[in-house]
Each structure stands twice: as structure tokens, then as C-alpha cells.
Amino acid sequence: MTAHCSRRRLLQAGTAFGLLAAALPALAAGRVVDETWRDDARQRDLPVRIRWPAASGALPVVVYSHGLGGSREGGDFWGQAWCDAGFVVVHLQHPGSDTAVLRAGLPALRAAGNAEQLIARATDVRFALDEIGRRRLVDTNDAAGARAWRDVRSDAIGLAGHSFGAQTTQAVAGQRFPVPADLTDPRPKAFIALSPSTHRSNMPVQDQFGTIRRPFLAITGSLDGDPFGAYKGGDQRARLFEGLPAGQRALLWLAGADHNTFGGNGERRITGRGPFAREPAVFALEPAHHALVARISSLWWHAQLLGDAAARAALQRPDGLERGDRWQLG
Fold first, then answer.
1. 20 to 30 A Cα–Cα from 91, which one of 127, 138, 149, 194?
2. pTM of the prediction?
3. Residues 6 or more apart in contact with residue 264 via CB below 8 angstroms
4. Which of 94, 73, 9, 98 has its CA nearest to residue 264?
5. 270-310 pLDDT per residue, tens
6. Bridge partners, residue 50, by sequence
């Protein structure tokens, strides 16, 4: 990455939100509420972080699943961007593959990325959607009593996730896995997988992803390799696009972006150390990459969940892409 290109990226970080504002409605900052939702059927407590937009009326909702070793605090950059664009954002925390595992050390972290935890995560998503529906029906307010769940639309639900959260998203969307459970849920209308995965199955990508019939955006980049060293770069991740049926798929590829870029950590940016060390140039480019992903993903939600014609038009040729970046539709 040249110094000239780096400067351009950093300049774009300051202008990308202006471009977003030009394409989407201007909204004031909303509220952030932390709660714990109890799944009695599984005797499982799910910490959640809910971002309520300032917009009034019927509200679309996006559910977000963190990566391996993460928490409900992760993906805050994406969550706030989507909230600012008018969406209720529910960040899930998945016990068994969250920060408790990260604190237990690298072997425990690696071991937690298994089929059992994937099933638990997909079931967490199903429970969260059930809980949102229940709260809508009983007219429940949020923890501060300020916003009513009845305002959330059941017909405009998106699901997104990073890394293991991307695998969770893929499973709920309909990816075929070598597991006995059916992890698909019909309620989300569109999906975003940040750092998706295709390498954990010997099935051809068309067999894995060919049954996904809902709009699906995959986001990866040139340095988005496996944190545990199984492969370098994002080529394996980008192959998900090849396996999706034509017509409702999209791929965003960012040159110089690594795995942690797509975690979307804004308040607590990850510098990385040991096996997860990051290149200084990548860290320097992260604000620009974050701004671009936030803008394009917000347009995606507006286009796919709300049928926004202006957002669909903007996605035909998104602004702000640099040399080496790639945007594919169709």
C-alpha cells in the first residue's frame, strides 16, 4: 500500500459519512440499553446490547453476532452506523464462545469454534427473534421504559455477524453444514457476513450456499486470513460469493484490510499481539475502511429491508472504493 493511497484512505474516512448522509435520511443519535434475556427452555442467559435509533414510527431491526471470543460490546462501529441509519440493532453475546473463552487462553479459544457452539449460537438467534416477537405482542418497553417493542417491524429483520458470527449468519441463512440440526430461520430478510467462512467443509461452495435464497452480502479483504493460521488472505472467504445463487448476492473486497478490520470495534480498537499481531499500515487504514463498510452496509439494509430505491441505485456503483477494492453484485 503506497503512502499516497494511505493518505487518500484517511481522507475518505472523513468524507464517507458525508456520502452516507447524502444517500440516507439524517437521524439524531439514539440510545444504548444493556439487558440480559433469559431463555428458560435452555436455562441460558443471553447478554444483549440494544441500540435504539432516534427515528419514530415502525422500525426495522438488525441482529448482530460477535466473533469467537467477543461480546455484546463488539461490532460497535457497525451497530452505531446502522442505528444512525434508522435501525434498531440488537448485539447478542453467546456464552460458550464469548470473552470468557478468550480469557481462558488460546487453546480454549480455538476449541470453542466447534459445531456444538455453532448450533448454540444459531439457537441464540432463533431465541432472540422469538423474544423480539414476544415483546412486540405484549407491548413491552425497553429496560429504561423509553421505547416500545411494538414499534419494531417483524417484516424487516436483518442478521449480520463477524467471523464465527458470520458462520452463525450463514447457518441461519441456510448454509448446508455437516451437522444434524436445521439451523435455518425464515424471519431474517437479508444478511451480512463480515469475514465469512467456506473452509470448514469439504462440500463445494455451490452445495454449501446454493440453497440461500435471500439477499446476502459478504465482506472481506486481502489480509483477512485465518487468525489461527490455516490460510492467508481473504480468497477463501470471498468464495462464498461464488456459491450463492445469482440475483441477490454481493461481495465487498477491501485491499489492505485484515480480520480485525471487519470486527468493527470502534471504541476499543484492536492493536493485536502475538499470533494476532496487526501490521501498522493496516491499523492506520482502519478508520477509512470502517467508514466505507458502514456506508455500504447501511445502504444494503435500506435497499433489502426497506425497499429503498435510492439505496439500490447507490449500490450499483458505490462511491469511495480504492484501487484494489472490489464490489460485485448479481
1. 138
2. 0.89
3. 74, 75, 76, 77, 78, 79, 162, 194, 290, 293
4. 73
5. 776 665 677 888 888 999 999 999 999 999 999 999 999 99
6. 33, 90
